[in-house]
Every structure is written in structure tokens, then in C-alpha cells.
Amino acid sequence: MFARSSRLPGAARKILEDIVATSNYQFRTEFLRESQAKGRAEGMAEGRIEGTTEAVLRVLTRRGLVPSEEERGRITSCTDLELLEVWHDRAITAESVEELFA
User: Fold this and answer.
1) Taken in order 44, 48, 51, 57, is the CA torsion positive or negative?
2) CA of 68: how far to CAs of 29, 42, 61, 97, in Å?
3) Neighbours of 92 (CB within 10 A)
4) CA-to-CA distance for 9 and 13, rounded, in angstroms?
5) 64: DSSP letter
6) In the chain, where are the structural domains located?
7) Within 10 Å of residue 59's Cβ, how many Cβ atoms?
8) Are 56 and 91 in contact (CB under 8 A)?
9) What is the dihedral of CA 65, 71, 74, 76, to 10 degrees?
10) Mind listing the pLDDT tens digit for each residue in 62-79?
11) How would you class 34 by CB atoms within 10 Å of its CB: exposed for 0-12, middle for 13-18, buried for 19 or more?
């Protein structure tokens, strides 16, 4: 966790690492608590977008529908979760990748 150039002796560094790893530190200022909550929410949203993007591509692949580079780029660059969910639903029954975007 800490760089080897740390000025802490090995035993002290180990104790500090154990404390940090096992503690559930709560920020004391409202600003830091809000920043932490915002970061968590953004991370969760990014995770949902990534997961849905992967799901769209997986469904297409499993159905034998191979997107072109342009189509794949359109899917992977999309950050609109609602649109990705629509594409996922369409991927289940689409006869072609083009139908995904109709």
C-alpha cells in the first residue's frame, strides 16, 4: 500500500496498513462525505453502463450477429444507460445489428 520509500519502519508500516485495511473510516466534514458519496454513485453508474454494454455485445455474439467496427464503437462509446438497456432488449430478438439502432 505504501511506497517502499516510506519513512516508516517496516513494523510500523505494517500496523498502519492493517489499521487502514480493516477500518471503516468515516469522513468528518460534510464536503468529504458528499464527495465520497458522489464518487461511489458515479462508480456504480459506470459499472452499470459497462455491464450493460458487455451484455448487449454478448447477446449479439451468442445470436451470431457480429457488429462491424463502427457498430461496436457506437455501442461501447454509449454512456446513456437507458439507451443501452433498449439496445439490450432489442438484441434479444433483432434479426440484424442494424435493428438494434432502429
Assistant:
1) negative
2) 49, 30, 12, 9
3) 11
4) 6
5) T
6) 44-102
7) 19
8) yes
9) 50
10) 999 999 999 999 999 999
11) exposed
